[in-house]
Design a protein that fits this description.
The chain has 5 helices and no strands. It has one domain. It is mostly helical and about 140 residues long. The longest helix has about 30 residues. Helix 1 packs parallel to helix 5 and helix 3 runs antiparallel to helix 5. This is Leader peptidase PppA.
Length: about 140
């Protein structure tokens, strides 16, 4: 594979990982509060207004809004983009680790499905205990 192919897969890993990180944020906030992670759509923790789709882009939405709610101007924690960015980096790093560890062309030898499976499932396995720690910390913060 060429450099462009690898760079594209790394970028894709960042995007997919950031989206997973966005969902992880939803879980960290809602699970300790006993709320559904599927409904309702994301909302401002300050005023409760729904977050528009254009503002709900991982990392970039927070940056473009300056870490504030579009409706009430309330502060949105930096934890949200940090978790999204860290998760994106984790996905890209897992791909790079496989790339460095494999001899020859990993994609040719293993096939795209196995490579994709490894690059997606392994970060999720790493994220599970991290998510549990964040949820526990959030539950303690709620309890006061």
């Amino acid at each position: 594979m060429t450099f462009v192919h690898h760079a594209t897969l790394i970028a894709l890993g960042m995007v997919v990982g950031s989206c997973v990180g966005s969902f992880l944020n939803v879980c960290v906030y809602r699970v300790p509060r006993g709320r559904s992670v599927l409904n309702p759509p994301s909302s401002c923790p300050c005023c409760g207004s729904s977050i528009r789709a254009r503002d709900n882009v991982p990392v970039l939405g927070w940056i473009f809004l300056g870490g504030t709610c579009r409706d009430c101007g309330g502060r949105i924690s930096i934890r949200y983009p940090l978790i999204e960015l860290a998760t994106g980096l984790l996905f890209a790093t897992v791909y790079l680790a496989h790339l460095a560890a494999e001899t020859g062309d990993m994609l040719e030898r293993c096939g795209p499905w196995l490579v994709g499976f490894r690059v997606v499932v392994e970060p999720l396995l790493i994220l599970t205990p991290i998510a549990a720690v964040w949820m526990r910390a959030e539950a303690r913060a709620i309890a006061g």
